[in-house]
Write a structure and sequence with these properties.
By secondary structure, the protein is α+β, with helices and mostly antiparallel strands. 56% of the residues lie in helices and 14% in strands.
């Protein structure tokens, strides 16, 4: 009986010993894994701290450059009636141009924007045509609007572009191609006299056809990106003057080019040693 009790007791002790050892091994394994994760986390933390330090250094460098450029820009650029910014280099070119402008027109310029309008108009007219009365240039904020008389682009009552328009369109293409982000709208305008032919139902048709004719030439002959252009027809509903005389109707028959240029590039393109 005693022998049986002794064997039972030894079995219990050995069993308890085996269970404790398994738990110990498991705990050791967990500890090792935890240490490994901790070490990995510490390494990642140090790497992140290094990256953050580099980023902070770059931000500080960029801020220093921005502040430096701002100081330069503040001294080199002038606000134009709160709608545009003109560099002092462009301003100097503008003043040089204004010495060649008709004094009576110059006397009408009351603001810096008025002067800018006169200078751009002078350069563009001299660059693309000798007949200034057939081209009108105006700037509304930063948008340049060029009205070209139809007699410089089309034969009477036709949408086919005449060969004498090549000089004008080539110069316009240079301006348009100078700025990748620029969008251009080509608008056809007619006078109030109605038209009805096999080709044109009315003035809407004629004005649209003339606009698309100009756009196609700019695209196909002068490599203007078609994605930058819009062709529109305005019929006779936006006249410059009353359609009450032959001369006024001629003024209303026009093609309007609306472009948004970089003014520095605009002046550079339109400059000529012969002016």
């Amino acid at each position: 009986m005693k022998k049986t009790v002794l064997i039972s007791s030894l079995s219990i002790i050995l069993l308890a010993s085996c269970v404790s050892k398994k738990k110990y091994v498991a705990l050791e394994t967990d500890l090792a894994e935890t240490k490994s994760v901790l070490t990995k986390t510490q390494v990642e933390k140090e790497e992140l701290e290094t990256k953050v330090s580099k980023i902070e250094a770059r931000v500080a460098e960029y801020n220093e450059k921005i502040n430096s450029l701002k100081e330069v820009n503040d001294s080199q650029y002038t606000s134009v009636d709160d709608v545009a910014v003109m560099s002092n280099n462009t301003k100097a070119k503008m003043r040089s141009t204004l010495t060649k402008v008709d004094p009576s027109k110059l006397a009408e310029a009351k603001t810096l924007q008025d002067s800018m309008n006169l200078a751009v108009s002078y350069h563009l007219k001299k660059s693309i045509a000798d007949e200034e009365d057939d081209i009108n240039v105006d700037i509304d904020k930063t948008v340049v609007m060029i009205n070209i008389s139809d007699k410089m682009l089309f034969n009477s009552g036709s949408y086919r572009v005449s060969s004498k328009a090549n000089t004008i369109l080539e110069k316009l293409a240079e301006v348009i191609n100078s700025e990748p982000s620029m969008e251009v709208m080509v608008e056809g305008h007619t006078d109030s006299r109605t038209i009805s032919t096999e080709m044109f139902q009315d003035n809407w048709d004629l004005s649209v056809k003339r606009a698309t004719s100009i756009v196609r030439i700019l695209q196909e002959k002068y490599n203007v990106d078609p994605a930058k252009m819009i062709a529109a027809g305005r019929s006779s509903y936006l006249p410059l003057v009353d359609n009450d005389s032959k001369e006024n109707r001629a003024k209303n028959r026009r093609t309007k080019i609306v472009i948004i240029p970089n003014l520095d590039k605009f002046f550079a393109l339109l400059e000529s040693e012969n002016l």
